[in-house]
Amino acid sequence: MSKQIDLFTIGFTQKSAEQFFETLLKSGVRKIIDTRLNNVSQLAGFAKRKDLEYFLQKIGNIEYVHILDLAPTKDILDAYKKNGGDWETYEKQFLNLIEQRQIEKTVTPEILDCGCLLCSEPKPHHCHRRLVAEYLQDKWGNVKICHL
Predict the structure, then answer these.
(1) Is residue 13 a contact partner of residue 122, using CB atoms and an 8 Å limit?
(2) What is the distance in angstroms between the CA of the first residue and the CA of the last residue of the chain?
(3) Strands 63-66 and 115-119
(4) CA-CA distance, 41 to 47, in Å (whole number)?
(5) CA–CA separation, 104 vs 86, rounded Å?
(6) Can you give the residue range of the structural domain that contains 117?
(7) Which of 22, 23, 31, 141: disulfide with 115, CB 3.0–4.6 Å?
(8) CB of 117 closer than 8 Å to CB of 24
(9) Angle 87-101/74-81 helices, nearest 10 degrees?
């Protein structure tokens, strides 16, 4: 059996910078895997790409990587967020998308081990980071998911 992969997920909204970075440090995360389509929005505050990359490095020597293959398309995201779409439709569309992209082949276990999937949603229930984690757990079988 292959080595277990410890995969974390976190959302940055409804958290102070202190809560966010302390949570990452306490959990032992070594890499943030940004799964956002748009990671430069002013609304992201301390989690804008360049700022986040800097803070992660300075505060916890945590690597930062942005993997667009793990993000929804603008069409899927807009239909759900801006046009009041329902979660079930979004979930189905997003799972079809990552299956088409074959993320289990383009993303390696080495990249994800001790990594943390990042997006904006405060909780994982209605969030694509959970779908990515569960999809890979299903495909690989050796993924232990921890939502921070």
Answers:
(1) yes
(2) 27
(3) unpaired
(4) 9
(5) 26
(6) 5-147
(7) 31
(8) no
(9) 170
CATH of the domain at 40: 3.90.190
Q: In the numeric block, which tokens belong to residue 77?
A: 């995201």
Maximum separation of any 2 CA atoms in the chain, in Å: 44
Q: For the chain, how many structural domains are there in total?
A: 1
Q: What is the pLDDT along the chain (148 residues), one digit of tens a residue?
A: 478 999 999 999 999 999 999 999 999 999 999 999 988 887 778 899 999 999 999 999 999 999 999 999 999 999 988 888 899 999 999 999 999 999 999 999 999 999 999 999 999 999 999 999 999 999 999 999 999 9
Instruction: Check if the beta carbon of residue 120 is closer than 8 Å to that of residue 77.
Output: no
Task: Kindly provide the residue ranges of all beta strands, DSSP E only, lying in the chain, ordered along the sequence.
Answer: 5-11, 31-34, 63-66, 115-119, 143-147
Residues 72 and 123: their CA atoms lie apart, in Å, by 17
Six token digits for residue 130 = 């959970």
Q: Quote the CA–CA distance of 114 and 87 in Å, as a whole number.
A: 28
What counts of helices (H) and strands (E) characterise the chain?
Answer: 7, 5
User: 29: closest CA among 103, 113, 132?
Assistant: 113
For residue 35, give both structure tokens: 């799964």
